[in-house]
Write a structure and sequence with these properties.
The structure is a homodimer of 352-residue chains. With 352 residues, chain A is of the alpha/beta class. Chain A has 13 helices and 14 strands. The first copy, chain A, folds into 3 domains: 93 residues, Rossmann fold, CATH 3.40.50.11840; 112 residues, Rossmann fold (3-Layer(aba) Sandwich), CATH 3.40.50.11850; 87 residues, 3-Layer(aba) Sandwich (Rossmann fold). In chain A, helix 7 packs across helix 8 and helix 8 packs across helix 12.
Chain lengths: 352, 352
C-alpha cells in the first residue's frame, strides 16, 4: 500500500556521512522498515530498528537514537513536526495509493447536502490527491476551500487528531476524506459544522454530527463523574510533540484556585494501570487528546481533557475538543523525504 | 513498611539550589512519593511525579527530568547504580522494617543442611540487617561468608535479579534472605550450590535447587523451540542501566557467523505485542534477564537470553543464568540518602 524510497534515503544518509542509524516506524510499515534495515546494512550502514510503538510525528525517537550512539534517525510514515531534534532526522511520509475520486463520485449526492461552499480536509496519507479532489469537486460545481492550517501540520488541508486548524475556514460544511472515526469526529466538534466523512477505501460516506453529539454526551458524563473529585492528577507527556507543560501547569493552578488538590504527573506511556496506587480521584490528560477520549473506558477514575476541566470548574460553558495548536506555518513540508535537525550543518541540507 | 526521610531530602535539594524536581518511585512507595511531593511543594519546590513504571536503579528518569525542565531527580526505593546522570539525582534507598532473625531462628535446622561454611546474600531491602544476621549465624556455629560483589550492587552481600556477584564465594551452600522467587532462583543457577531461601515476612524456608532445575528445563525448551529459527530479533533496552549494546552486537554477529539473519531492535518497554508485524522467528533479549525468563509465556515466538543463544549455536554446553556484570566496586553506597550526578560541582556533594 505504501512505498518507501530506499535509494533516496541511502543518498540522504551518505550526504550527512551517517554510519549508524535508528529506524522508527508506525505499525503499518514494520515490514518495510525491516526491509530498509536489510538494504542499508548491505550498503555498510549499521541499523537499529526502534521496536517501541510510535504514535506519530509528535513522538520522534531522536533522543533514543542519540542514546544508542546512532548519528541519524529515519522516521517512517510521518512528515516533520516542528520540534527540536537531537540527531539529524530523515522524515519519510507515507502516502496511500488508493484513488479517492471514485469515492467522491459515488457520494456526490451526500456531499451536495454540505452546501455549495465546502471545506476539504484529509489526513497526511491522502494529501497527494488533495488538488485532484479539489478540481473534481469544482468541476461538479462546488466552491472548495482548503485551509492553510498552522505549524503543527505540514500541508494545507491536513488535519491531525489533535489539530483541526485547516478545517477552520468560512465554509457551510466540511468534507473529510480518509479512514477512521477520530479525525472527522474532531472536525465536527471543532468546527460545529455539518461534517461528512468519505472513506476512500470502502467508498462509504458517514455524517459525523450525530456521532459527535454521542461523543460529547459521553464526555459530559465524564465531567459529571469528576464533579465530586477533590484530588486531581494532571498528566503531562514526555513525548516531545505532546509535552504541554505550560498547559498542564495552567490546569493544575486553575484546579488549585478552585480549591482542588492537583499534582503534575509525567508519563511516557499513559495508562491507568501505571497510576494505580496513587491517591487521586480524577485525572486530566494534557497530552494527546486521543488518550482520554479513546481510552477512558479502561480508566477506573474519571479522565478529562484540559478544556473539560474548564467546564467542570464553571469557566467554560460550551463543549470544545482538546486541540494542540501550532504557530504560523512558514512553509509546507515536501511531499517526500526531508532531512531535519541538528547539527547546524544540516540547515544546508534542509534547503537542498 | 518503609520510611522516606522528607527533611533530609529537602536539605539536599536546598544544598544544590533545586527549584523544580521530578520524583521517581517504585510501585511500593507511590503513596510516600505523593506525600513527599505535597511536602516539597509546601516548601516552595515545584514537583512533578514520574508516573511511568520504574524497574529499578537501572532505570533512572534523569533524562526525563531534564526534558521536563527539572533541575534534579529524586529516585525513591533504590541506591545508586553506576551510570551517567543528566541531572543531579538524590537516591533514597528503602529498607524493610521486618526483623529477619526470627525467620533464621525458626529455620536453623534447614540452614544447617547447607553446611558449616555458608554464603549469606540478601536484597537491598534487608541489607541493614546483614551484620546482625551474620552475628546470629556465627553464634550458632556457622562460618558466614559475605561476598563483596561488583560495581553493579551497592553493598557486600547484595544480589540483584541480574547480578549474583556477591554470592560467588567459597562456601558450601548459599543462604538467601528475602521475598520472591526470582533472586534465589538466579543465585541457585549462578552458583550451582545448594541454595536455601528464607522469607523474613512469612518465616518460610524453600530449597531453590529443585525450582532451579525446573526453570532450567523450561529454558531448554525455549532453546529447542528456537532451533529451526532463521531470523532473530536481538532486543536491546534503552533503559540506561540495561543498555547492553556491545553484548547485543556480539550476539547478532555470532548469529550471523552461524548463518542466521539477525537485526538489532531497541525498545524501552519490551513486550511481544509491540513486535508483532516484524518478520522474526525468534527473539533474544539483551536487557533485563527477567524479561525473557519471567515473561516468555506472553511471547508467541521463542525468546532467549544471550547465554541461551550460545547454547543454541553449540558454543556453550552448560546452562548459565544471564547476568549483567559490573566492574570493581570502589566503595559502598551509604545506607541512606545520597546525591549523585552532574553538574561537576556535585562531585563535592558526593564526598559530603
Amino acid at each position: 500500500m505504501h512505498e518507501v524510497p530506499f535509494g533516496e534515503i541511502l543518498e540522504r544518509l551518505r550526504g550527512i556521512g551517517s554510519k549508524k542509524v535508528l529506524i522508527q516506524t508506525p505499525e503499518g510499515l514494520k515490514k518495510e522498515a525491516q526491509e530498509l534495515a536489510d538494504f542499508l546494512e548491505a550498503k555498510g550502514i549499521e541499523v537499529i530498528i526502534n521496536g517501541d510503538v510510535n504514535y506519530g510525528a509528535c513522538d520522534p525517537a531522536d533522543s533514543k537514537a542519540k542514546l544508542l550512539g546512532c548519528d541519524a534517525l529515519i522516521h517512517l510514515g510521518h512528515s516533520y513536526m516542528m520540534l527540536h531534534l537531537d540527531v539529524p532526522t530523515i522524515f519519510v511520509p507515507a502516502f496511500a495509493k488508493v484513488d479517492p475520486i471514485p469515492a467522491l463520485e459515488k457520494n456526490l449526492g451526500e456531499i451536495r447536502k454540505l452546501g455549495k461552499r465546502i471545506a476539504l480536509v484529509t489526513t497526511a496519507q491522502h494529501i497527494l490527491h488533495l488538488e485532484r479532489m479539489c478540481r473534481f469537486l469544482e468541476e461538479k460545481g462546488f466552491e472548495v476551500l482548503v485551509g492553510r492550517g498552522d505549524s503543527r501540520v505540514s500541508w494545507p488541508g491536513q488535519v491531525l487528531g489533535c489539530n483541526f486548524s485547516a478545517a477552520r475556514v468560512e465554509a457551510e460544511g466540511v468534507l473529510f476524506v480518509g479512514a477512521g472515526y477520530f479525525h472527522p469526529l474532531g472536525v465536527a466538534i471543532a468546527t460545529k459544522k455539518p461534517t461528512l466523512a468519505v472513506n476512500p477505501y470502502s467508498g462509504d460516506a458517514i455524517w459525523m454530527n450525530k456521532e459527535a453529539e454521542r461523543l460529547v454526551k459521553k464526555r459530559w458524563a465524564q465531567i459529571v463523574k469528576a464533579m465530586d473529585a477533590e484530588k486531581f492528577g494532571v498528566i503531562v507527556s514526555t513525548k516531545k510533540g505532546q509535552l504541554r507543560l505550560a498547559e498542564a501547569r495552567k490546569i493544575a493552578n486553575l484546579l488549585r484556585e478552585h480549591g482542588k488538590y492537583a499534582r503534575l504527573i509525567a508519563m511516557d506511556y499513559i495508562s491507568y494501570s501505571a497510576l494505580e496506587g496513587f491517591d487521586f480521584d480524577a485525572y486530566v490528560v494534557v497530552a494527546c487528546p486521543r488518550v482520554p477520549i479513546d481510552d477512558y473506558e479502561n480508566w477506573r477514575k474519571p479522565v478529562l481533557t484540559p478544556k473539560e476541566v474548564e467546564i467542570l470548574l464553571g469557566i467554560r460553558e460550551e463543549y470544545e475538543f482538546d486541540e494542540i495548536p501550532g504557530a504560523e506555518r512558514k512553509e509546507d513540508e515536501p511531499f517526500g523525504v526531508s532531512l531535519k535537525g541538528s547539527p547546524a550543518k544540516n540547515a544546508d541540507f534542509d534547503r537542498m
